[in-house]
Design goal:
The chain contains 20 helices and 13 strands. It is of the alpha/beta class. The strands form 3 sheets. The chain has a 6-stranded mixed sheet with strand order 1-6-5-2-3-4, sandwiched between helices. Its main location: cytoplasm.
Length: about 425
């Protein structure tokens, strides 16, 4: 059993809840939906197919997508059959943004991103057993359609008056930018996806972010009109921090699931730095910990917040889920070693590279002046200040105290031949990169 399979084997529905719907509500995963009672009954009944779509508008998924993937996994654990849709056609268009038109990417780029996202989606679902997941690409059914067929067979079911009332469309119509017919048509394409999956797999549920509600309901309405059938949609809340700011950003950048775009170290630190006011809600959404376990952490946050036990568990769980146990341990070791609580020389290159990528950097080679490197890295303002800091015993290279004001970087200081870590005092860090 490989690590990913073992991880999935330990994931469970929390049987302390009377229904899966009750658990989803407790975890804060339901912001809006079609008939809640009917959905609760559906989830407790015979296995059915459901889907969520992921558009390749970038080469990686991010934390917003992780919310959907974990919701899909919870439904799969209940016995239902997930369809992970990667939008080879909708990715060529892009869903409307609130303020401006998207830049259209080339077909070659979108095709590459489809493959990349498909691999990522596959990590979070099981492709074995009676309710094995299936990956689908909407380009398979949209590419063969002619424009005439699209308008005759699909477009006839949509009313322009209804389409322009969708929140995102209304906002764009009121803006100076307006909206192109291309992006205006996106909701029809997404509706077509649901109809096609209903016809092929008897798909009865679509999930997505609540900001996509207009697109989600375009599918339920299309199926009602074209097939005379009732199907469902769930809109998950857009997750925000307790202060109202948008969740999932760090220094203005998205937290990507691809380790090349957000290192396991940076990913781990993001979760470790969650505020006390937010951490319990994060445990509910992003982990498979039980209600009893999460309530215990809530008590610890209230009574002993300085221990940050909930943040440490959150960072451990989510980083392991996304990057695996080895990379997570590397991130933990790197975090400790940077601040003198472990041996930097024992870190593997990937963990060390991820850690120093988050630090100010100075270029240096063997023989470089430590004092000058302190200046170049921005840890001090002048050579005089650097020398005084060294003389006072407050400068370290790879956690070893620098004893001489004239000290130079040794070849052995360059870990893996590439990196050294400068520290001034207890917490001020920078990296040297050869």
């Amino acid at each position: 059993m490989n690590e990913r399979t073992e991880l999935m084997a330990n994931q469970r529905i929390d049987d302390s809840f009377p229904t899966l719907w009750a658990e989803l509500e407790w975890r804060g995963l339901i912001h809006v939906s079609t008939d809640a009672d009917a959905l609760s009954e559906l989830l407790e009944g015979e296995p059915f197919a459901y889907y969520c779509g992921f558009d390749p508008t970038a080469s990686s998924l991010h934390l917003g997508h992780l919310v959907q993937l974990l919701l899909m996994r919870r439904l799969q654990l209940k016995g239902h059959r997930p369809l992970g849709l990667v939008g080879g056609s909708t990715g060529l268009i892009g869903d409307p943004r609130p303020t401006s038109e998207r830049t259209l990417n080339s077909r070659e780029t979108v095709a590459q991103w489809v493959d990349s996202l498909g691999e990522q989606v596959s990590k979070y679902l099981s492709f074995e057993g009676d309710n094995a997941a299936r990956l689908v690409n909407n380009l398979d059914w949209t590419a063969p359609l002619s424009a005439i067929d699209f308008l005759r067979e699909i477009g006839k079911y949509f009313r322009v008056g209804t389409m322009i009332k969708k929140d995102i469309v209304a906002k764009r119509l009121d803006s100076d930018e307006g909206i192109s017919y291309t992006e205006f048509s996106y909701q029809i394409l997404q509706g077509l996806d649901y109809l096609e999956l209903y016809r092929q797999y008897d798909c009865k549920l679509q999930s997505g972010g609540s900001d996509q509600w207009g697109n989600l309901t375009s599918g339920t309405e299309l199926i009602r009109k074209a097939e005379g059938a009732s199907v469902h949609a769930i809109g998950t809340p857009l997750i925000t921090n307790a202060d109202g700011t948008k969740f999932g950003k760090s220094e203005g950048n998205a937290i990507w699931l691809n380790p090349e775009m957000c290192s396991p170290y940076a990913f781990y630190q993001f979760w470790l730095n969650q505020a006390d006011a937010d951490v319990v809600d994060r445990l509910k959404v992003f982990t498979f910990l039980t209600r009893a376990e999460i309530e215990d952490y809530a008590t610890q946050v209230a009574e002993e917040p300085f221990k940050r036990a909930a943040q440490k568990r959150l960072a451990l769980e989510v980083t392991t889920l996304v990057h695996g146990a080895k990379a997570t341990q590397g991130a933990i070791d790197a975090s400790a070693a940077l601040f003198g609580q472990g041996e930097l020389s024992e870190l593997d290159e990937a963990s060390l590279a991820g850690a120093v990528s988050e630090l100010p950097v100075a270029a240096g080679a063997a023989g470089a002046s430590i004092a000058q490197l302190l200046v170049d890295a921005g840890l001090v303002k002048s050579l005089g200040e650097a020398r005084r800091a060294i003389a006072q015993g407050g400068v370290y290279v790879n956690n070893a105290k620098v004893e001489s004001e004239d000290a130079e970087l040794a070849a052995a200081d360059l870990l893996h031949g590439k990196f050294a870590v400068l520290r001034r005092g207890k917490k001020t860090l920078a990296a040297v990169r050869a």
